[in-house]
Amino acid sequence: MTVCATEMTTTAPLTITADGAYAARLAGEGEARYPERWTLGGPEPYAVPLPLAQPEEADSEVLPLSDGRVLIHRRVADRHAFSLLYPSGTYTGPRPSCPGAGPRTGELRLGGIDAAEGLLVRLLPPSPDGCAAYALAVAGGETTVWQVAGHGSGGPRRAAVLPGRCSGGVWLDRSGRLLSLDREQDGRVKAVAVDLLRGGVVTPLLQIAEDSDDRLLMAAPDSGLLLIRSDAPGEPRLGWGVLGSSRPVRFPECLRLEDAHPFAVQPGQILMPETCGVALRVGGTGLALWRPADRYVFRFTTPAGWLGTGLWTQEGRLRLPYTVPGVPCGIVALSQPAAPPPPVRLDPPPKQAPRPVPLQQAPLG
Question: How would you write 321-333 as a 3-class SS string?
Answer without folding.
Answer: EEEECCEEEEEEE
